[in-house]
Structure formats: structure tokens, C-alpha cells
Design brief:
Layout lengths: L1 H15 L8 E7 L2 E8 L3 H22 L6 H9 L4 E4 L1 H16 L9 H7 L14 H7 L5 E5 L4 E5 L12 H15 L4 E6 L2 E5 L7 E6 L6 E7 L3 E7 L4 E4 L2 E4 L13 E8 L2 H26 L3 E6 L4 E3 L7 E3 L10
Antiparallel strand pairs: 1-2, 2-6, 3-5, 4-5, 6-7, 7-10, 8-9, 9-16, 10-13, 11-12, 13-14, 14-15
Helix pairs in contact: 2-7, 7-8
The protein binds adenosine-5'-diphosphate and magnesium ion.
Length: 341
């Protein structure tokens, strides 16, 4: 009986062209060490599927080329930097390293793409899990001495110049943002106007002007489900960094994958940061830098990085956000102090 009613309603709707919005084309893939989902709205299946194919291919290529310990271009560069100080690379990689170094300067060294050996020492380059053991203090200290690195670009390519051998460049704090920028270009090329790409917490919300924004859940850093919902669209990136994605606990300390370059230890005071920006690369770098800076540096860093929309949740559940963020956030009453600024 129920089936028949629905079918009849469906027919009536088709005739009056009042059918509800069809569900998006969806695909889930594993890339950048995480599950990623692609949702494409308002497109014929064949076109959406072709766009998703291109995105899947591009993400596989970028993950390979931008993973510091992989077989691709950044892995090659790092293997060369082990015993060389000057290495030629592609323009694309050079531009991304150059951008990462600029975020390093703008964040007064809190974002640091040259801390690959520390990430490796802590085991967060691949296999860290609950059985992992924190490294020895002396080994950590030995690696906190930064090796200055710069990049020269010309029309042909780029060149990395380090002041000593042994630097390991890690673009993990920025790569997913840069990959989202690439996804955005691919979607535009395919004529897609409404889509949601989620690279495990780095989200691109593409929608036409005057259309409904997406409602994006902000993960509860200490529990299941969301603590807040964010409205975003028109190509905005919504990027979250947290201490709950890759971590191990030892002697009541949580060691996770975002490291304070000045101490060599994982940051301890901040549980999660969410940044909204039109530039996904900025959003990604800023979320990582704000995790390191914590509440104390929140205002200074958002100003210096040019971030207008950001929120930070401490490990104690306190919340701070920029003025503009209040209008985008709807708290779900799970956090003490939510809604304060
Ligand atoms: P996720 O990749 O989980 O979204 P982030 O964007 O914050 O989170 O990136 C974390 C990654 O960035 C780490 O796995 C590491 O490779 C690298 N990283 C860790 N600490 C820093 C830092 N202070 N500055 C720049 N990159 C960092
Ligand atoms: Mg980041």
C-alpha cells in the first residue's frame, strides 16, 4: 500500500516537475591516508562519474608526488637532500614548498614544512598506533635545530636550497588543502557547480551563489558525532586539524601528529581547530599553525595569516573563535563555553 502511494506521488511530481532534488552522485576512495568522499550534485550520472574519475586520478598522483616518504617527487627530493644541499624539482612542487615556507614565516615558525625528521622520529609518517612509544628526549632535542631551506623558481622549474644536508621536507600540513584546490579546478572544468569533497576533515564546499549552503558537522574531538554545524559554500574550504586523528597515549600524555617545531613535541593544549577560507591551502596551513599556537596565539596568528573565520577548542573544552565565525557556527550544546569569544 505504502509503495503504491509513494509511486503515485512520484508520478504526480514528475508531471508537475516538483520532484525532490535528486541525490548526489557519490564515490568514496582511500587517498592521502584517509577515506575521502566525493559528492556531485545536479549533474547527469555520466558527467559526474567522469569528473569523479579525474578527481580520483589527480588525488592519486598528488598523494604520490607530495608524500614525504613515498616513491613520488617529494620522496625523491628528500632522498636527494640526505646528501645534497641543492636539488632541482618541478615547478608545481617548488611552488607548493615555496608557499609552505611562506606560511612558516607568517606563522613565526609554528607552521614548519622542514620538520619531517621529527615527524618520522615520532612515527607519525606512517605506522604510529597505540603500541607506539615516544622517542627519547635527547633524540627529539637533536632534531629541533632547524636547517634553513629556500626555494628558487624560474619558468622551467624550481630548485631547493638547504643550508646543510639531512633536511626532510614534509608537506603533510598543507597537501590536502592543495589537493582540494586541484579538485576545485577539475570540477569547474566539468561544469559542476555544486559538490562536496571531503578529504578526511579537509572539505571543499562548492555551490552557486544564491543557493543553499552546505551544513558541515564539526567533529567532537573527544566523542562521537558533531559538536557544531558550520554553514559553508561557494567554493569555501572548511579544514579541521585535531589531536584525535593520529595519536597514541602514553603515561597520561597524548602524542599526536602535529608537532611544535620549537619544542619538538606534539602540541598539548589544543584539541581541534576549524578554519573556513576561500583558499584551501591557506585553510589547511592555518589550521595546523593554530593547533600549535593554541589560544595564546589565536588572535595574532589569524591576523598574520589573514584568516577571518576560525574556531579553536582546547583539550579542556574551552572555545575561542574569530568574530565572523559566530555567524557560521551552530553549537550543539556539547561543549562548555561554546558561543563565547
Ligand atoms: P591532517 O593532515 O590530519 O588533516 P594537518 O593538516 O594539521 O592534519 O597536518 C598534519 C601533518 O602536518 C602531520 O602529519 C605532519 O606531517 C605535518 N606537521 C606536523 N606538525 C607540523 C607543523 N608544526 N607545521 C607543518 N606541518 C606539520
Ligand atoms: Mg593542515
Amino acid at each position: 500500500m505504502l509503495t503504491r502511494v509513494i509511486a503515485t506521488l512520484g508520478l504526480a511530481c514528475a508531471a508537475l516537475s516538483c520532484a525532490p532534488e535528486p541525490p548526489p552522485y557519490q564515490r568514496t576512495i582511500y587517498t592521502f591516508g584517509t577515506l575521502a568522499s566525493i559528492s556531485i550534485y545536479d549533474q547527469p550520472h555520466a558527467e559526474a562519474s567522469a569528473a569523479a574519475d579525474d578527481i580520483e586520478q589527480a588525488l592519486a598522483r598528488l598523494n604520490r608526488d607530495w608524500y614525504a616518504w613515498g616513491p613520488g617527487e617529494l620522496g625523491e627530493l628528500n632522498r636527494s637532500l640526505a646528501d645534497k644541499e641543492v636539488v632541482d624539482i618541478s615547478l608545481e612542487l617548488g611552488e607548493l614548498i615555496g608557499q609552505a615556507l611562506e606560511f612558516g614565516e607568517a606563522s613565526d615558525g609554528l607552521f614548519d614544512p622542514t620538520l619531517g625528521s621529527l615527524v618520522e622520529l615520532w612515527g607519525f609518517h606512517d605506522s604510529a598506533d597505540e603500541a607506539s612509544v615516544a622517542p627519547r628526549a635527547a633524540d627529539i632535542r637533536a632534531l629541533t635545530e632547524a636547517i634553513p631551506v629556500r626555494v628558487e623558481l624560474d619558468s622551467e622549474g624550481a630548485r631547493v636550497i638547504a643550508s646543510a644536508t639531512g633536511v626532510v621536507i614534509d608537506l603533510g600540513g598543507i597537501a590536502k588543502g592543495a589537493a582540494l584546490a586541484e579538485c576545485q579546478e577539475i570540477l569547474a572544468r566539468h561544469g559542476v557547480r555544486r559538490a562536496l569533497i571531503d578529504l578526511g576533515g579537509d572539505i571543499l564546499a562548492m555551490s552557486p551563489a544564491n543557493s543553499q549552503p552546505f551544513e558541515i558537522g564539526v567533529q567532537d574531538p573527544r566523542g562521537d558525532g558533531a559538536v557544531a554545524v558550520i554553514a559553508a559554500g561557494r567554493g569555501e574550504a572548511v579544514v579541521t586539524s585535531g589531536d584525535y586523528e593520529r595519536f597514541y597515549d602514553q603515561d597520561d600524555e597524548r602524542y599526536h601528529h602535529i608537532i611544535d617545531p620549537k619544542t619538538g613535541y606534539p602540541t598539548a593544549a589544543t584539541a581541534a581547530v576549524t578554519v573556513i577560507a576561500n583558499d584551501p591551502v591557506l585553510a589547511d596551513a592555518a589550521a595546523t599553525a593554530l593547533m600549535v599556537g593554541g589560544i595564546a596565539k589565536f588572535e595574532e596568528l589569524t591576523t598574520n595569516l589573514g584568516v577571518e573565520l576560525a574556531t579553536l577548542i582546547t583539550v579542556d573544552g574551552a572555545v575561542v573563535h574569530t568574530e565572523g565565525m559566530q555567524a557560521r557556527l551552530q553549537w550543539l550544546d556539547k561543549i562548555d563555553g561554546a558561543g563565547t569569544d
